[in-house]
Amino acid sequence: MKNIKSILLSSALGLILLSACGKKQDTTSEDAVKKDSTALSAQADEITFSKDQYTMAGIQTGKVESRNLNSIIKATGMIDVEPSSVVTISAPLGGYIKSAGLLAGQAIKKGQVIATLENPEFIDIQQQYLESSSRVTLLQKEFDRQQLLRSQDVNAAKTLQQVTSDLQVMKSKLAALEAKISMAGINKAALSEGKILPSAHLYSPITGYVRTSNINIGKYVNPTDVLFELAKNGELHLALNVFEKDINQIRVGQSIRFGLGSQQQVDRTATVFLIGKATADDRMIPVHCHLPKSSAKGLLPGMYVKAWIEKAADAVPILPNEAVVQSEGKDYIFIQTAQSEKGFTYKMVPVKKGIQQDNLTQVTFPSTVASDAIIVTKGAYTLLSALINASQEE
């Protein structure tokens, strides 16, 4: 296929050259290049493309990356939230759902009402609370009176002790009822005014979004039922599944590269922070990774990902496969050596190929190639065909 592609590109570029050559009569080749804005110029292993030719050829450039192609463990997984960021909501006293309109994925704020429940028990609790509160007030006054009388040695010490005990018991009961009211979500402001309400509210303890919703209006829920799962914003992590045969080669702190399952690029980074200790039925072990903010951009919980876990070893320079071209049995790359208003100049440089893996090739460069050289990563065969044609024309 590459030979056919080269022939077609050679033919197209050849027509450009023939058009330019047709104008050569008494002028030199340099004059022809100046007159024709789309002409090619070539000198041994260098070639210049005009801006139009550069655009038509779809050339892309990049720089050399270092990666360990020999020791990559492939894994799949999904974007998840940190376990500490997930909150499960239930109704401590149960009840019938009166109103609920939250959907999975909906944004919520801390303190927001997420559900309203009704339960006859709410009425009983409020009644007991009001009665106990009134009883505490009465006992407090009696305690103050008995204490005064005791200081004047008018009453018996036993009478004061009994009143003190009754007051403490009633205060304890009132505190327990107040805790129940708080857990149930009953409006304490209305209760302090002597109003008894048959309903209670559930409030969000965090700012984030609804992960799951398991309720509908009219449904009776028990205290053990999970009504909602809420998750905090911005605290994502990567949950991978790794085969048990590879798990002994993974360490906390290792760097990984990953990308979405729907994309070819594997250009996001993460760091292993937790390795599971148990094997599932499918012989996979969970591996969890932290995401930097730069890698978490645009990600949502539940997205499917593919990942490369890089073992600790020497990294090698790599390029995309299509950056390396072959001519007369030798391998070459093209380096951009100049850019001006006239166009772009590229130089063909010999290299040695090494390991190939996942559309990447290990490359050994001559010592003359700078580490920050701009290398053609796409369109190298177009440049090779043009260089061959231009050399033949000369």
From TrEMBL:
Q: Which GO terms describe its cellular component?
A: cell envelope; membrane
Q: Can you tell which superkingdom this protein's organism belongs to?
A: Bacteria
Q: Name one GO molecular function term.
A: transmembrane transporter activity
Give an example GO biological process: copper ion export
SUPFAM superfamilies in the record, alphabetically?
HlyD-like secretion proteins (SSF111369)
User: What Pfam family is a match, any one?
Assistant: BSH_CzcB
Which intervals hold domain CzcB-like barrel-sandwich hybrid?
86-231
Query: Which residues does UniProt assign to the signal peptide?
Result: 1-24
Q: Which family does it belong to?
A: Belongs to the membrane fusion protein (MFP) (TC 8.A.1) family.
Cited PANTHER family: CATION EFFLUX SYSTEM PROTEIN CUSB, SLR6042 PROTEIN
| NCBIfam families the UniProt entry points to | RND_mfp
UniProt protein name = Efflux RND transporter periplasmic adaptor subunit
Q: What is the lineage of its organism?
A: Bacteria, Pseudomonadati, Bacteroidota, Cytophagia, Cytophagales
